[in-house]
Write a structure and sequence with these properties.
This protein is 48% helix and 16% strand. Helix 1 runs parallel beside helix 2. Strand 4, helix 4 and strand 5 form a beta-alpha-beta unit. By secondary structure, the chain is of the alpha/beta class. It has one domain: NAD(P)-binding Rossmann-like Domain (Rossmann fold, 3-Layer(aba) Sandwich), CATH 3.40.50. The protein has nine helices and seven strands.
């Protein structure tokens, strides 16, 4: 790693919010590890876009809900970067269903991918950052983790858990000068929202004071701020990016 090179790992970075975060961090000088589970071509396209703009990136395949994959990912980061400055936990899935119809496997899958993965990566990142006595960890939660939502008991529980995990880790890691914050997006234009029926979509937009759905770049800007020295006195916080929907 070059002297003074800033490094970041973004999980679930092949599309949507993760892609926007990876591109934004690269645009302000970070060398970015683009993590993906199965979408190699999409992740490679993110890497290529970063490099075509003059930035640096590497691809790191792995399911961050699996301890063995996380161990392999962080071993590679140590080999390639030597240290890690920023971790962004963005990997996530949804398996929506009414509670009485929800399959246990869909509960387990969402809790594992959306919450357990954050525990595993924060633990691994903290061990690296402690040596440097500096670092920033940003976890992507959701307004659903703040308000709850019918048909999303698993997703709401996982994202609420991310907020609790963020606050606990912030208290534990602050003495080592490692900041831990969360971003809670509202309705953002991604593949996850593409399938929403038009009537429901219109009702969602009507509930947003700013009158529009958010863009992945809106979330990326918030993440970039929390990663920066401009946020050096901010830890244990949840930054809601939702156009004013939840106040």
């Amino acid at each position: 790693m070059e002297e003074n090179q800033k490094t970041a790992l973004v999980t679930g970075a092949s599309r949507g919010i993760g892609r926007a975060i990876a591109l934004k961090l690269a645009s302000v000088g970070y060398t970015v590890a683009v993590n993906y589970a199965g979408s190699h071509d999409a992740a490679a396209a993110v890497k290529n876009e970063i490099e075509s703009s003059g930035g640096k990136a590497i691809l790191l395949q792995g399911d961050v809900s699996k301890p063995e994959d996380v161990d392999r990912i962080f071993k590679k980061i140590k080999e390639e970067f030597g240290a890690l400055d920023v971790l962004v936990n963005n990997a996530g899935i949804n398996r929506d269903s009414l509670l009485i119809r929800m399959k246990e496997e869909n509960w387990d899958d969402v809790i594992s991918t959306d919450l357990k993965s954050d525990f595993l990566t924060i633990k691994a990142a903290a061990m690296m950052m402690m040596r440097k006595k500096k670092g920033s960890i940003i976890n992507i939660s959701s307004v659903v983790g703040v308000t709850g939502n019918a048909g999303q008991a698993n997703y709401a529980a996982a994202k609420a858990g991310v907020i609790g995990l963020t606050k606990a880790c912030a208290k534990e890691l602050a003495p080592r000068h490692i900041r831990v914050n969360a971003v809670a997006p509202g309705f953002i234009e991604t593949a996850m929202t593409d399938g929403i029926p038009e009537k429901l979509r219109d009702a969602m937009i009507a509930s947003i004071p700013l009158g529009r759905m958010g863009q992945p770049e809106d979330v990326a800007k918030a993440v970039c701020f929390l990663a920066s020295e401009e946020a050096s006195y901010i830890t244990g916080q949840v930054l809601v990016v939702d156009g004013g929907m939840v106040m």
